[in-house]
Design goal:
Structural class: mainly alpha
Low-confidence stretches: 181-187
Number of domains: 1
Number of strands: 2
Shape: globular
Helix content: over 70%
Radius of gyration: 20 Å
Order of helices and strands: HHHEHHHHHHHHHHE
């Protein structure tokens, strides 16, 4: 019952925010901006969008390989697209990770190890986007509003605290009382096992270097994709600002909602309305939403044609 209430609440949050955004912008101007979008540039954007998937799948493959699990990249690409399909129906834009984990673990007896790889892949993605935003903020802090610097500062403190927690077992043990489920000893044991896998991942220097590097490439593609969409709408924005604001939007989209719907679009308008205008910012967010839906549609066709089962081999 509680899960249904939370799901209903997320749906309400998403559609309420979208409704408020539609009331906030001038709809006729917004539609006119969309109609004038440069279609040739948008074709390039679609291509860039599809290129990102193999990179984030390769990052996941690197994480799995560090623990001696061998899975073909093509199968992980397929599973990533399927996860993007279910992202559109499950809470937050990380909801598809549950589906990816389900198919990865389905016929394996190494459920903790494989499940931890899905969660750690998400952690690596989050760590890398915050690091990228922090670097950009340090380089261009004089040209940024105070609110952006504060957002990045607090997120950086959180992410570096998480890194310290995962790398330092003694520190984790000191704070373990906040994470133990005293009434549910099985959950307590499972959480300890998952932490142990994360701790092992955090000390695999080669894997961390490669996975964060691949993550940077995927995120640069994503930022260039946003930049090209802005150009297609006839607007201009300093590229460095996208290295600040897009990572922030990605992080905020993890808040309770349906695939970040409403929250993501709201922060696009919040951050960019003073630079390119609220109608153009909303048009940008809707086109990005269209790319997200496109990935989900591709995932749907893949799921219908091939299913989600993958073969896991061990070294």
């Amino acid at each position: 019952m509680r899960k249904k209430i939370f799901l209903l609440l997320r749906i309400v949050i998403s559609f309420l925010l979208l409704f408020l955004l539609l009331k906030f912008v001038n709809l006729s101007q917004f539609i006119a901006i969309l109609k004038k979008a440069d279609k040739k540039i948008l074709v390039v954007v679609v291509f860039l969008n599809l290129m990102i998937v193999p990179f984030i799948s390769y990052r996941w493959q690197i994480i799995l390989a560090s623990q001696k699990f061998l899975i073909k990249l093509s199968e992980l690409v397929r599973l990533t697209f399927i996860g993007m399909l279910f992202n559109n129906f499950l809470p937050t834009c990380a909801g598809g990770d549950v589906v990816k984990g389900y198919y990865l673990l389905k016929d394996s007896d190494k459920k903790i190890d494989l499940g931890a790889s899905v969660l750690f892949d998400r952690i690596i993605g989050t760590i890398s986007i915050i690091i990228m935003a922090l670097i950009a903020a340090i380089l261009f802090y004089r040209r940024l509003p105070l609110r952006a610097i504060l957002f990045i500062f607090f997120l950086s403190v959180f992410i570096f605290s998480l890194i310290l927690f995962l790398r330092n077992q003694k520190l984790a043990k000191r704070f373990s009382r906040f994470f133990r489920f005293y009434k549910y000893k099985t959950l307590d044991i499972q959480s300890k096992r998952i932490y142990e896998r994360f701790h092992r991942y955090m000390h695999s220097q080669r894997m961390l270097t490669k996975s964060i590097g691949i993550s940077f490439i995927a995120q640069i593609f994503s930022i260039l994709m946003n930049y090209l969409v802005i150009i297609s709408l006839g607007a201009r924005i300093p590229l460095f600002m996208l290295f600040i604001y897009i990572p922030l939007i990605w992080v905020f989209a993890l808040f309770p909602s349906i695939n970040g719907l409403g929250i993501r679009e709201g922060f696009y308008v919040y951050f960019f309305k003073g630079i390119i205008g609220k109608e153009t910012a909303f048009a940008l967010s809707i086109l990005i939403l269209g790319l997200i839906v496109l990935n989900g549609i591709i995932g749907g066709f893949i799921y219908l044609a091939m299913g989600g089962k993958v073969r896991v081999a061990e070294k």
